[in-house]
């Protein structure tokens, strides 16, 4: 009996320190968890997912069309640690026409993490050094894979939309605000949104009193849409025309619902409309034969029969879609188109000067003159069609 008691006493003597060690370790884990919780926060992304991100986010990557453009607008390009193939010459265009990329050529030198349009490579992402703390992903609802990418990399994925400047403006604003919240730069996100609001209001104010009789019919052709297209390619809800209340002959083709609907117009239909003034998206001017809008205008008998072509009323504007919409180009084009359609309402505007002012605010540097050189200075110019 005494021996049993002595054995039990010794066992308990050994067990008590072990229990204390386990207790201390458990308390340490609790404290550690509390510390981690204090260093993180939860945000709601565009997919209505609750995403836990670090309290301070200094290193990110941007996946998906236009994602890096939005980040540059927020002046956070110095936090990018890698880029997709679009930033390394992977787009199907021979001339760069993204103002943010022109203003920040240093982005090309960053490591590669995947292909453009959101085709990420988890292995490349996991191997990045320094490692990103957050992955921003535009068009997340369409492209999917946010949860899968998080599972494969262990890096929080914040799903975003992209939106546009007209019917999906709320989606654009919300995406900017979410990025600003994650990065701790909400004030800059608000400033960008206010800047867009101010430009739109200025354009609408200028044309408000233009009489219907002084509004010529017009058409924009050669718009890119997931690749380049010829002069038949247009946007019935082309944002510059919307801001200017222009008489867009293709406007009746606009589809109900969300998004700027893309359309391909037959030559016969365009001849029937016979718009008074034509605009060419100059992205089309560098495409191969059969898709080159400029060459079509110069050589196709159907287009040559248009009154605007005969009278020399064809003008070049900067690329609208280039790895999705160039918002700075859209506003810049709106001022040039406004001055072309309603010169009296824009008498105080030099379109190229205004374009560079927009680029400087959004991207931190000018870009349009450099882009124009790559397109033979067709932007904001009357196009000669012999």
Automatic annotation (TrEMBL):
This is Periplasmic binding protein. Residues 59-345 form the Fe/B12 periplasmic-binding domain. It comes from Desulfosudis oleivorans (strain DSM 6200 / JCM 39069 / Hxd3) (Desulfococcus oleovorans). Pfam families: Peripla_BP_2. InterPro entries: ABC_Transporter_SBP, ABC_transptr_periplasmic_BD. PROSITE patterns: FE_B12_PBP.
């Amino acid at each position: 009996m005494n021996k049993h008691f002595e054995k039990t006493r010794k066992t308990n003597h050994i067990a008590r320190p072990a229990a204390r060690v386990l207790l201390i370790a458990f308390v340490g884990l609790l404290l550690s968890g509390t510390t981690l919780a204090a260093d993180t926060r939860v945000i709601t992304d565009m997919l209505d997912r609750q995403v836990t991100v670090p309290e301070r986010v200094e290193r990110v990557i941007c996946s998906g069309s236009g994602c890096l453009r939005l980040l540059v607008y927020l002046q956070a390009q110095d936090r990018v640690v890698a880029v997709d193939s679009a930033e390394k010459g992977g787009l199907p265009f021979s001339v760069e026409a993204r103002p943010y990329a022109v203003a920040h050529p240093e982005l090309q030198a960053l490591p590669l993490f995947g292909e453009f349009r959101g085709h990420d490579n988890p292995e490349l992402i996991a191997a990045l050094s320094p490692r990103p703390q957050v992955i921003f992903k535009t068009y997340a609802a369409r492209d999917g894979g946010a949860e899968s990418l998080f599972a494969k990399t262990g890096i929080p994925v914040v799903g975003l939309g992209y939106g546009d400047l007209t019917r999906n403006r709320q989606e654009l604003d919300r995406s900017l605000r979410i990025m600003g919240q994650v990065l701790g730069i909400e004030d800059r996100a608000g400033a960008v949104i206010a800047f867009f609001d101010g430009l739109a209001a200025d354009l609408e104010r200028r044309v408000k009193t233009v009489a219907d009789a002084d509004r010529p019919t017009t058409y924009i052709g050669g718009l890119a849409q997931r690749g380049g297209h010829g002069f038949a390619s247009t946007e019935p809800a082309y944002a510059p025309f919307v801001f200017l209340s222009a008489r867009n002959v293709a406007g009746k083709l606009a589809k109900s619902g969300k998004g700027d609907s893309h359309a391909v117009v037959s030559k016969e239909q365009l001849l029937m409309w016979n718009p008074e003034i034509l605009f060419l998206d100059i992205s089309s001017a560098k495409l191969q034969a059969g898709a080159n809008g400029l060459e079509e205008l110069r050589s196709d008998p159907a287009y040559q029969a248009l009154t605007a072509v005969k009278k020399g009323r064809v003008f070049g504007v900067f690329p609208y879609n280039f790895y999705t919409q160039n918002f700075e180009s859209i506003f810049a084009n709106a001022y040039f188109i406004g001055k072309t359609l309603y010169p009296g309402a824009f008498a105080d505007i030099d379109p190229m000067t205004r374009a560079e002012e927009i680029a400087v605010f959004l991207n931190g540097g000018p870009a349009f003159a450099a882009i124009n050189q790559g397109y033979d200075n067709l932007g904001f110019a009357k196009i000669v069609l012999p």
